[in-house]
Write a structure and sequence with these properties.
12% strand, Rossmann fold
């Protein structure tokens, strides 16, 4: 068992909160504590969280139903909507979402877990704002840290009474600091660290990241246009064991935790099947820990006359931690990450260019805006024409530039900085 230095707490709902916690596993003694399904959780709390998750997943999948689905999702999204960034103003008033969760916390939500963890005296580090609320309300004795999982955040992430709160916020982007100041959080409790990224994709001195990025740029810039125009930037990545890659170009398509947008992956496979068979493209279809998505992708591969591992792979594991490990291995040979702008937006800092599917929810709309602002994201064209517009992006060097822009303009030392901060 690894030495435990923090109580690492997330929520088992979707992927974002646990994915953000995964790089800190070594600090948590190899374990992520999930507030909604830990051993010994009171039955009423378990039912509370199960009901919440089912509702979210149902509405997320229902969103694609014309008119009615959009309307129903809009009602839920309004509950957690992020207000426009400008103009700077006081946004410290509490929201209905906060009142909803605090009402449950006052009834005892989270108390059992905090009572279990309190004797340790370890820092409480969470990627879920409700867990931070609960820790503070139920008098957790150690320091409380909350890692924000997106490039922007709604008022719900800040405490009900921010001026009196001792929760320290660890932010992925510098711009987000002003947002939390508008929410009334004390400046000394706002720390810009960067998002925690998997160390196995970075290396001790970024040697893994730079090696993979150099290979990726060579593949994404077959004409050499970008490499010639920005030769000084590319030469700074030079590693002793790197060799120029040649096609196929490897695309990784990731669906969300609710299984939304899996049909886009199927359409990409169909439209690129000729190129896959010709050795021009590889495609990784990320099913996460959802067996129904895995089965859907398996059938899609069969329907298109392809075989799994013949230029197409499905990334799946029943356990989320095992899935994260497989996904991170997959990223090392990924040239293009195609996904909705979830927490994976922040993975552009690994030098991964993102093709952006339609955002699902307010926070993803802001993630998309951030990706475009740093130059690391490109809005997806119509998937049915991917075989036409993707080669154009490759020949122009635009995807190579997006890979380098993510590396240069997004923070990739979040895991290291968080560990340094907590271990002071």
């Amino acid at each position: 068992m690894q030495s435990k230095k923090i109580n690492l707490v997330a929520v088992n709902m979707g992927y974002g909160h646990q994915r953000a916690a995964y790089p800190l596993l070594s600090l948590g003694g190899g374990k992520i504590i999930t507030i909604n399904d830990y051993p010994g959780i009171p039955a009423w709390e378990k039912n509370y969280w199960l009901s919440s998750e089912r509702s979210y997943n149902r509405i997320s999948r229902f969103k694609k139903v014309p008119w009615l689905g959009t309307a129903v999702f809009g009602v839920m999204d309004a509950f957690q909507k992020i207000k426009p960034y400008y103009p700077f103003r006081d946004l410290s008033a509490s929201t209905e979402q906060q009142k909803y969760f605090y009402k449950s916390i006052k009834k005892g939500l989270g108390r059992h877990l905090i009572e279990q963890l309190n004797p340790s005296g370890l820092p409480f580090v969470t990627t879920f704002f409700v867990a931070a609320y609960a820790a503070e309300y139920h008098n957790y004795q150690g320091d409380i840290y909350c890692i924000v999982c997106d490039s922007d955040a709604s008022r719900a992430w800040a405490p009900m009474d921010p001026k009196a709160s001792r929760i320290k916020y660890l932010l992925p982007t510098a711009k987000l600091k002003k947002r939390f100041l508008m929410y009334g959080v004390k400046e000394e409790n706002i720390l810009v660290t960067g998002f925690p990224l998997p160390l196995e994709n970075i290396g001790e001195k970024q040697e893994i990241l730079k090696h993979d990025l150099q290979q990726r740029i060579a593949t994404l810039d077959p004409s050499g246009f970008y490499q010639q125009q920005y030769s000084n930037l590319v030469s700074d990545l030079s590693t002793t064991d790197s060799t120029k890659m040649t096609p196929p170009v490897t695309i990784t398509f990731a669906v969300g935790g609710a299984g939304a947008q899996a049909e886009i992956g199927a359409l990409i496979l169909k439209k690129l099947s000729t190129g896959i068979k010709a050795g021009q493209f590889n495609l990784n279809l990320v099913a996460g820990n959802r067996p129904e998505v895995q089965n859907y992708f398996k059938q899609t591969i069969k329907d298109n006359g392809l075989v799994e591992a013949g230029g197409v792979k499905i990334i799946f594991a029943p356990d989320k931690i095992d899935y994260f490990k497989k996904f991170n291995v997959c990223l090392r040979t990924t040239d293009i990450l195609w996904t909705k702008p979830s927490e994976l937006s922040l993975y552009c800092a690994l030098g991964l260019p993102l093709i952006i599917s339609e955002p699902v929810g307010s926070q993803e709309e802001f993630n998309r805006e951030w990706l475009l602002s740093v130059g690391a994201g490109i809005d997806a064209g119509a998937p049915e024409y991917v075989a036409e517009w993707l080669p154009d992006l490759l020949s122009s060097g635009r995807l190579a530039r997006a890979a380098m822009d993510g590396f240069l303009n997004a923070e990739n030392r979040g895991t290291e900085r968080i560990a340094e901060l907590i271990n002071k």
